[in-house]
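fyi for ur records
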Amino acid sequence: MVTKIKLKAFMLLIILFLIALFVGGTFVYGIFIITALILAASFISGKSTNKNLISIVWKNNDKMQAGSKLNLSMELYNSGIFPIAFLRLKSNLSRKLTGEEEKAQIYSVMPGEKVIIEKNIICKTKGIYKIGHLEAEYGDALGIFNWKKVFDTDILLYVYPKIHALKSFSIPLRHHFGTVAVRHNAYEDFASIRDIRKYASGDSLKKVHWKVTAHKNEFHVKNVELNATAELNVFLDLYQENYQGKFADEMEEAAAECAASVIRYALSKNMPVSYIAKSDSFIKVSGMGLSRFNEFLDAITRSEVCGDTPVWELVRNEGQKLNLGATAVIITLSVNELLLQTLLTFKAKGIGFVLIYLCEDRNVLNNNIEILKEHNIKVYVLGLHDDLLQVLGGHYER
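which gave:
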């Protein structure tokens, strides 16, 4: 596609034509014909180059984690017979992926040669990115025509949020089955033995390990695991109005990391999990077991901050569908009166809640958080520079 034409060259051609027409003479006609041939040759070479430019994209992986390095190689091959005097290339990679604005690079390419653009990118934020896009602008040696060719190969890069391996996470549990350790004897799992010790006064006869007792000729009891499980629902706030200002991208990434890490922890404990969010469309993924984790990762990666539904409204609408005794984890940047009243209403109906509140500065007090804590709702406050593992592990609870 021609994007620019130097009109002065055509004005010169018209003037030469008029002079030749009115003055005549072999010399003047010769100059006119030579000029016309140069213009024609420039146009033909540009059109031929447009047809013979070939782009190839190489990558080391198509699924990465935020913070990891992507090795990207873009090759542009001139398979035609005409040289390219001026070639300007821009891959148009997303600023969210690279963390910086991209600068165009300029080359000249002879016939049969290729240009290789090597990029080593630290993937900044989660998302699905198009990396097969390359814009090539080029011109002839005289600068008469400028052409543009866009290569838009359907090559996608999935950048997943960073996953933190939580060793513990406080979840209100009501059902006595599963593999989540708790501290209440009501959840003793007699099928899961932690260790064996000698009988002590007051031990229940249910815990006696009869085989070891017979072998040792004295009573031994089983120390059993305290296990429980619950239906866990993770709500991720994608309301666009909450992600404003200088640190919007960092807060979006932290929210996604929280969701992915909590879901992985729950799946590893064989909990039934649902991920619920509202982006440009409603998102819900449900599953159980670590084998389903990639489905949740894909959903979180696709979840863009462009929603028009505040998280309190999402919780209100979906909370009505939760089973009695279910637990909801809310990940949000805003704890307002509406969210406060919504959580307290559902808590009174038997729904358990954990709130993960993301903010720029964890030392700035929020009265609504204090009210939630007074009603025994677990609250984690994650500041912009806090360590997620330490916060969710309870080191920085407030």
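Residues 195 and 223 are 5 Å apart (CA to CA). thats all i got for now
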